[in-house]
Amino acid sequence: MITDPKLQLTIDCAEPERLAAFWAAALGYKVEPPSAPFATWRAYWLDQGLPEEELGEGDCSDSVIDPDGTGPRIWFQQVPELKVVKNRLHLDLGVSGGRSVPFATRKERVPAEVMRLETAGASRLSVDFEKGTTLRL
């Protein structure tokens, strides 16, 4: 029995490197560097014998890690099929400070974070402060 299991979150997607860069910025994570002595993950996987056709596009820089090592690794796995139904997983970022923080303060904090995430590549879909602090990116 494994006594210290490590959680990895795997997300199927069409553009793994783009999502990895965004979520690294959003969470304060970093894109996972390739194993030494390799300059790219693609070079690493080819050296390990993985066929080129299984690697998808780009350099395979498709995972992010918590620099402190406490949060889970997130792997953005490229899949050929397009999304056709609602996602069964969504990631919620709590940036307002929670209900212990006065509502007016929460309303001030969220727009700054929204702007930061938009700069990192997010698209704003809706904001509804009247029902609480709800934002969809």
TrEMBL record:
Domain Glyoxalase-like: residue ranges: 8-131
Protein name, UniProt field: VOC family protein
Signal peptide per UniProt: none
One Pfam family named in its UniProt record: Glyoxalase_6
PANTHER family with a match to the protein in the record: CONSERVED PROTEIN (PTHR35908:SF1), HYPOTHETICAL FUSION PROTEIN (PTHR35908)
Domain of life: Bacteria
Source taxonomy: Bacteria, Bacillati, Actinomycetota, Actinomycetes, Kitasatosporales
Organism in which the protein naturally occurs: Streptomyces broussonetiae
Family matches, as InterPro entries: Glyas_Bleomycin-R_OHBP_Dase, Glyoxalase_6
